[in-house]
Amino acid sequence: QVQLVESGGDSVQDGGSLRLSCTATGNILNVDSMGWHRQASGREREWVASVSHDGSTNYRGSVRGRFAISMDNIKRTAFLEMNGLKPGDSGVYYCVACKQGRAYWGQGTQVTVSS
């Protein structure tokens, strides 16, 4: 059984920074990619950023230049460094790990940015 555990969510002021972490445990080795999605209250879940096993990264346009995603494949841990946070970044952040066409999701961690 595969589980993803996120941490690092918190409440910060506009312009603040947070670092989210996500660790995959269980029967999963050498994931193909990991990523982060978020869901604001009353809105659909949206993709934020992803990192492949080769280190290549992709970002949602609104976070590019402010967020940085990285992954330690040996430790099966992904990080999302978030700087210059805005109220529009608020929401529950979900980690996802992909392996051979299957996606595994975490329970989410709350990020709240106040103006």
Secondary structure layout:
Layout: E1 2-7, E2 11-13, E3 18-26, E4 33-39, E5 46-52, E6 57-59, E7 67-72, E8 77-82, E9 91-99, E10 102-105, E11 109-114
Parallel strand pairs: 2-11
Antiparallel strand pairs: 1-3, 3-8, 4-5, 4-9, 5-6, 7-8, 9-10, 9-11
Would you mind describing this structure in some detail?
Helices cover 0% and strands 57% of the residues. The chain is an all-beta fold and 115 residues long. The strands form two sheets. Strands 2, 4, 5, 6, 9, 10 and 11 form a seven-stranded mixed beta sheet that branches. Strands 1-3-8-7 form a four-stranded antiparallel beta sheet, with no helix packed on it. A hairpin with a 4-residue loop joins strand 5 and strand 6. The protein is globular, with a radius of gyration of 13 Å. The termini are far apart. The model has no long low-confidence stretch (mean pLDDT 95).
Question: Brief overview, please?
Answer:
This protein has strands at about 1-5, 10-15, 20-25, 35-40, 45-50, 55-60, 65-70, 75-80, 90-100, 100-105, 110-115.
Ends distance: 40 Å
What's the SSE pattern?
A: EEEEEEEEEEE
The computed structural class is mainly beta
Beta content comes to over 45%
Task: Write down the Rg.
Answer: 13 Å
Q: How much helicity do the residues have?
A: under 10%
Low-confidence stretches: none
Overall pLDDT level: 95
Number of helices: 0
Biggest sheet: strands, sense, closure? 7 strands, mixed
Number of strands: 11
Q: In one word, what is the shape?
A: globular
